[in-house]
Amino acid sequence: MHAIRLHAFGPAENLTHEEVDDPQPGPGQIRIAVRAAGVHLLDTALREGAQGPAPAPATLPTIPGREVAGIVDALGDGAPEDLLGARVVAHLGFAPAATPNSPSPTPAACTASPHASTSPEPSP
After folding, report:
1. 3-state helix, strand, coil in the chain (%, to 5)
2. Is residue 53 within 8 Å of residue 78, measured between CB atoms?
3. 2-112 maps to CATH 3.20.20.70
């Protein structure tokens, strides 16, 4: 997957565009093929190394952003099968955005669109 990653705290110039391994959902988790992502103002402070409201500063490298919308494209063992292909939005809380070693969202962290579809095309 393509990702904007931070390897050292500091200015925006420290962000790099990279290809990383696709994360795999663990038991009870889902993976979202992200179609839109949000970076909150708080991410700017976290990028600079501030702790913010999290229990500890982010570990590096990290992918900024905690708000995503997309399509569920993989399920971990025990995740509800009817979510596969659903359009969802999620706020990942303090978890860093998807990295191979970070947790994937649980179904409870996501909201399915009322226009859920197995098609990647937006509903009218």
Report:
1. 15, 30, 55
2. no
3. no
Nearest CA to 42 out of 54, 59, 32 is that of 54
Q: Which two tokens stand for residue 34?
A: 């992200």
CA distances from 124 to 33, 85, 93, 117, 119 (A): 20, 17, 30, 11, 12
Q: Distances from the Cα of 54 to the Cαs of 39, 63, 96, in angstroms?
A: 16, 15, 11
What gap in Å lies between CA 40 and CA 22, rounded to an integer?
23
What tens digit of pLDDT does each residue of 15-26 get? 999 998 888 888
- Tell me the residue type at 39: V
Reported as a single tens digit per residue, the pLDDT across 52-88 is 776 667 788 888 887 889 999 999 898 899 999 999 8
| Residue of 52, 68, 62 lying closest to 96 (CA atoms) | 62
Burial class (CB in 10 A: 0-12, 13-18, 19+), 97: buried
